Every structure is written in C-alpha cells, then in structure tokens.
Amino acid sequence: MIPRLQVNNISKSYLGCFANKQVNLAIQPGEIHALLGENGAGKSTLMKIIYGVVRPDRGEIFWQGQQININNPTKARSLGIGMVFQHFCVFETLTVTENIALALPPSEKWDLAAIKRKIRVLSQEYGLDINPDRPVHTLSVGEKQRVEIIRCLCVATKLLILDEPTAVLTPQETEKLFLTLRQIAASGCSILFSSHKLQEVRSLCTHATVLRNGEVVAQCNPQAETTQSLAKMMVGDDQGILGHGGQGETGTRRHGDTGKHISASLRLPLSASSFPDPQSPIYLQVRDLCLESKHSLGTALQHINLEVHSGEIVGIAGVAGNGQSELLAVLSGEVICPQADMIMLGEMPIGDCDVLKRRRLGLGYVPEERLGVGVVPNMSLLENALLTGYSQGLLRRGIIRQRKLKNWTSRICSAFNVKQAGLNSLAGSLSGGNLQKFIIGREIQQNPTILIAAHPSWGVDVNATATIHEALIEIRDLGAGVLVISEDLDELLTLCDRIGVIYKGQLSPFLRIADISREQIGRWMGGIGFV
Questions:
Q1: Would you say residue 409 lies in a domain?
Q2: Burial 407-437 (b: 16+ CB within 10 A, else e)
Q3: Does residue 77 belong to any structural domain of this protein?
Q4: What is the pLDDT of residue 300?
Q5: Which one, 125, 177, 224, 362, has least CB within 10 Å?
Q6: Cα 148 to the chain's mean position, in Å?
Q7: SS3 letters across 37-84
Q8: pLDDT at 269 over 70
Q9: Counting Cβ atoms within 10 Å, is residue 39 exposed (0-12), middle (13-18) or buried (19+)?
Q10: Residues of the domain holding 466
Q11: d(CA 305, CA 333)
Q12: Residue 396 contacts by C-beta under 8 Å, 6 or more apart in sequence?
C-alpha cells in the first residue's frame, strides 16, 4: 500500500544544532500514528515541516506516492493536511467564527452564518463546547485549543495532525473524542497524534515513531508495549519513570536530584506528614467570593469558598471555560475583589492588594499561558528571571546586579534541568517543557508561602512532568501550600491531597483523593450530579 505521507531523511538544524536528523516516517491511509519524544526531541519541528511552516534543510516528502514541496500551510491545507498546534495560531481580536473562516477555501469563508452553524454541529458532535460569537481574547487556553480542533474538522482533511488534543477534555469527553477519531480513521483519514499521555497513545494508536535528540530511535506498535517501555524509549533510561498511578502510569519521582536542589534553596519548616493536620495553618482562604466576569461572555464566580493549609496540595478540576481564568485572575491580583477579606493570605486580607503586594507577601504564581504571560518570548532568560525575581537581591538602588542575576538564573536552570543554549537565549527559543520548568523554577526559588499553579504540566514530556511534579511535592513537604488548577485529571490525581471541581463558576466540596473516584470527578466536570 502506498503511504498517505512519507518523509525520507528529513534534516533541519538551527545554528549548527540538529532539530531533526535524517528522520524517516511513513503514515498509511486510515492509520492513527503516534509521534513520541521528550520536549526538544524534534517532534514539533517535524510536524511543522509536514504542515509547511518550516522548510527542511534536506530530505524528501512524498504525498500519496508523489514527491512534493510543502512550502506553506496553505499548500498543506490544499492537500488535505490540517494541524492543531500546541501554541495556538489564532487572532485574539476576532471571534471564533471569524478565526475558523480564515482557514476555509474562498468559496466558503464568507458565509459566516453557515460556518457558525457548522461550528455548533461539530461542537455538539465532539463534545467541544464553544460559543461561535465569542472574541478569542476572552477565551481560556483550553477553549482556544478547542477552536483549533474545530478549525481542522471544518475542512475535508486527509491527514490530521494533533498536538496534545486531550489536554482540555474530561475523561468522558476523551473517550468520545477517541471514538470519533477511530471513526475518522476508519473512513480513510490518517492521524498523526502527538501526546505525552502514554496510556492514551497505547489505547488509540496502532503505530508509533519515537524521536530522541532529533533522530528516530524506535518504531513500534504502542498497543504491544507498556507505558514503562514507551517512556524508556523516549528518555533512554529509567530516570523519572516510576510505576505510579497518574500521568498515564508514568507517575512522578518523589525524591531525586531536583528535590535536593530545591530543598537546599527553600527555608520553609518541614511538614510531619504527606497530608496536613487539620490544625495546620491556613495559608490561603477564599471566603464567599462572588464576582462578575470582566468579559460579557465570561463566567461569573458564585460563592467561592476554599482553604489551602500549610503542607498540602489542593487541586481544582474542571473543563475549560467554567471560571478557571476568572478565579486565577482574582487570586493572582490581576482583578481586585469587592472586599479585602474575601481572600486571606494567612491572617492578612489581600483581596484589595495588587499583584506586586501579593508577591511581596509570599504568593507565587504560575500562569496558564506561558508565552506572553509567563514570559516575554523575545527577552532573554536573564531578563525573564528578573521580571518576577527582582526582590531576590538582584537590584541595588535601581541598578541590576548582573553577577547575582546570572547566578540566580543559572541556579534555576540547574535545579530544574532547563535545557538552553545559554542564559542570554530568548525565552521563546525554549521548548514548551523547558520553558514551563523555567517558569516554575523561577517561582519556587523565591520561597513562596503559597504557590498557585495553572496547568503546570500542560503539553510537557514525561521527564519534565516528573521534574515539575517533584518540585511541587517538595515544597508541599517543606511546609508551603500549593493550589493547582488543571484540566488534566491524571495530573490532579497524581499530585493532590484534596480535590474539588469548578463548574459554571461554582466550586464543589473538596474531598480527599481516597474518598472520591475518577468517575465521580469526571461527572462533576461535565455538570452531572454537581453539588
């Protein structure tokens, strides 16, 4: 059988460093093909080459047996290739409908009413709830990914490239999406599926290509492998791959090199147990918080109550668009509360404090959006480290202490194994996993009393996930309080001591992990039996 897509000896280098090196890949019609590898292994570069965003230095691409040059995404789409990027390609000032129209052929893109109807049908069919009239700048990260998925589904696609497509879905919605993807594949459409959730790969895919350092190191049938063996192919050893429950059974390292670095840098009291004593101090408390969204199509927060004690990790699950962005904005200080005592940091009301004051009082924050919010992409790592870490003795009378800044940035990169070409590298040049490790490391190195982390391991590989999870567990064990807001249920079940669900701006009760099932959380996330 002639492959739908075949790439031969594809190579691409940047400044003498290979992103892809003589990569060979073949995808058959109707095949669901997994592309695996750590962050920085070359997956994104290869997918962008196939989609025409990046031109290879060497190699050949064959489409249905014919050699072709895919010069740009327009050419790719004309062939029937669609792609959902990890970092989204949307216009913030346009509506959902207008963004999707831009990807359609000229004969279809001007009938916005028809496009809107199609969006509603696909949203219902795939369980990807989205309002076609909303401006994209009012959407959460998860909702923006839904726009990307629906945009690909609106055209007749022969090869669908999906990069972390299930990060925003409940377990029930993931099952429904997988059923749909199998139906699409059965009709003859090929699917290239990139995911770090290895259990999903084993469930869905019939073939896998594994990249490491830009080269193909393995080809296999993931259904004949274990998550352990797949992870070992990706990283080359067993480091960070324990048979713990979450993250597709890859789990997280509870102790190790990263933890040693972190422990040495923190000055918090040790906690006596992995779950806090009910009498342990409450570091963060939200009291009957009610707040209208600043966007007309946003979600209002209704009677939000939560507590985070010293020495515990509290998780909030939920499908994107149910108030997570609004809650994060009000907790971080981007939005001020009507009353100061609606949010308490220890004994101090902080509801009327801005971001700067909350940080000075010991609140650390990892935002949901890395590029543009977590870091400034066209600034160096040194400059980005200074953006939130200026209070760490890095300034003297308004002058940057360059040596201290360099040492502090180097310590972040070393403790969290951030792979980079140098401290003057632009933040935007890092892979998603390394960028996320840098952001989390920057916050943890400031010794927060309470750390709020949004989607801490979104789209990062097994090793980066292990490093991030270990870091969060370490600061918990050293006495900090941690609040994790995530749409990844595996992540929350791996990390958290207590978990609740947000749905339409309301919070469920918070239950210990041992007292709640995955199925119950999934039902609450979908609004079924929500209390």
A1: no
A2: ebbebbbebbbbebeebeebbbbbbbbbbbb
A3: yes
A4: 92
A5: 224
A6: 15
A7: CCCCCCHHHHHHHHHCCCCCCEEEEEECCEEECCCCHHHHHHHCEEEE
A8: no
A9: buried
A10: 257-371+448-525
A11: 17
A12: none
Same domain, 209 and 344: no
pLDDT bucket at 236, cuts 50 / 70 / 90: confident
Q: Rounded CA gap, 415 and 261, in Å?
A: 5
Q: Report the predicted TM-score, pTM, of the whole model to 2 decimal places.
A: 0.68
C-alpha distances in Å from residue 443, one per residue of 171, 329, 366, 472: 30, 17, 7, 11
CA distance 145 to 152: 11
How many domains in the chain? 2
Q: Cβ(322)–Cβ(343) under 8 Å?
A: no
Q: Rounded distance, CA 12 to CA 184, Å?
A: 31
Please check whether residue 385 lies inside any domain of the structure: no
Q: How far is CA 465 from CA 112, 472, 496, in A?
A: 41, 11, 15
Does 181 reside within a domain? yes
- Listed residue (169, 253, 192) closest to 464, CA to CA: 253
- Four-point Cα dihedral 290, 123, 508, 368, nearest 10: -70
Enumerate long-range contacts of 137-140, CB under 8 Å, 24 or more apart.
137/92, 137/93, 138/295, 138/297, 138/298, 139/96, 139/321, 140/320, 140/321, 140/324, 140/325, 140/368
10-62: per-residue pLDDT in tens?
Answer: 999 887 788 899 999 999 999 999 999 887 788 889 999 999 999 999 999 99
Residue pair 453/366 in contact by the 8 Å Cβ criterion: yes
**CATH number for the domain that contains residue 464:** 3.40.50.300
Whether residue 153 is found in the same domain as residue 273: no
Neighbours of 402 (CB within 10 A): 10
Other CB atoms within 10 Å distance of the CB of residue 512: 11
How confident is the model at residue 255, as a pLDDT? Answer: 33
Are 233 and 267 found together in one domain? no
Query: What single DSSP character describes residue 392?
Result: T
Q: What is the pLDDT of residues 87-136, one digit of tens each?
A: 677 888 899 999 999 888 888 888 999 999 999 988 887 767 789 999 99
Instruction: Give residue 12's identity as a one-letter amino acid code.
Output: K
